[in-house]
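Quick board copy: two proteins, each given as sequence then tokens.
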Amino acid sequence: MNFIFQANDVRARDQLGGKARALAALAQTRLPIPGWFVVAPAAFDQSLAEQGWVEAERSISSIHTALANLHLSEAIQVDLKIALNRLCPNGERVAVRSSAIDEDGAQHSFAGQLDSFLFVNPQDVAVQIVDVWRSGFSDRLLTYRQENQLSLPTAPAVLVQTMVDAQISGVAFSANPVTGQRAIALVSAVYGLGTALVSGDVDADSYQVNRAGEIVQRQIAEKRLAHRYVPNIQEISSVEVDAALIQQPALTDEQVQAIASLARQVESHFGRPQDIEWAIDPSGKLYLLQARPITALAQMPDPDGVLNIWDNSNIAESYGGVTTPLTFSFARRAYEEVYRQFCRIMGVPKGRSPSTTAPFAEC
């Protein structure tokens, strides 16, 4: 049985989980994605079985007990060493992140609820994989699943990805998740690692970019702190930003446009608006770290869009023959109300529905 799959291994698509499945789907696009591999959920079951844990006894309490002293099985450790030697032959550090089966889906988002580990030494990856598994059964995650009437979790797949030492990082949305505008991309940027943005420790620069690539709005924040990896203590720390850079844009206009374009390329590939994480390394190269659907957008109308409702009801069948003035006066009012109700059923917001009777009465 295979427990570890590479980016180009299409056999494992159904085992990869949200993050890795999206990256695998993008593997042939030539987008700038750091190298990666994924540890399948089967590795969790195999490691538990090696400790004598019985599948038939599966329950949250028994899994918590088993997780307390869990370690990777010997066979998986051998496969992991081979995969790491291929991914980081010179001991390059990696990111170890969850990739749960139903994580980052179109209906529910588990963003930030499972643990991730950055700048991990290759020799510590095995330990961090188990830590990610533990986070998949945390009280926080179980509460979220119960509140959303989701089934109990299975072990997440674990994504191991080459670490980008980000000088600038952030997120981008290929459509505006606040207003619902599909033609406006949002780009948010901070100095250093994206953990500063996710944690809310710093305010981010924010840009709105239209489909022509024009920046139509920008807000430059005071960015006094940045999260950076400090090698001598081997930790990610919050460090002060150079005074000359605090009120300066983190990105050039060209970089903003490139990030918005990247988000839209991902949207085009998946056929739906996407939320991406990105990073720029010390050389200025832009990387795509992950992509997921914008969960909040599905029920939002596009305020700039054209909304067409087509109906082919055969009204003539209701009133056959020659329509007299009396019948017409009644039918006109009746069908006006019918079409108003039809628009409500179709989800047309009140602000988009005609305020006068004419469009409905003349149908």
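And the next:
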Amino acid sequence: MQRFQFLDPGELVDGDLRLALALCYQGNAALGMVPSYEFHMRRVPDGVRLGAVSLRIGESEHMIYVGNIGYGVAEEHRGHRYAARSTLLLVPLARRHGLTELWITTDPDNWASQRTIELVGGQYVESVLVPPHDSLYGRGDRIKLRYRVPIGPESGTEQGGSAARFDGAGAMA
């Protein structure tokens, strides 16, 4: 099995948000886990950890339920659009891996995540049942909403594009 070739993500900064690469995970084919980049969301300039975001590259059945992007923001740091801004910062890296769209999933009752996905240009595609053999089922997940985010050159879905852009304070510009 050939090892996944990770790329240098470069400097990922948007105003008071910096993504710090924490881990490159080769994946686990037996579990349907694809290679991923794991980043800590850090506040500029003091480095306080705000949350985490992952970019997953590859295809598997498990990816239907987890998507290409996963994020979590610490409760005390919510409301600054860190998840949306982090997602947009990862678009160029995703493109460098040949992706033309991102799939992002969320739970039906997670309104904040649904709003985040819409802010980055996500379009609702479908709701899927999580099968009992998937690891998400074991933690209680039964349904996932799947959104597609086009990231092709003409999509405008990146920092500085037209579909979703944020100023340094986390507000839409």
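Board note added afterward: The domain at 12-150 is CATH 3.40.630.30 (Aminopeptidase).
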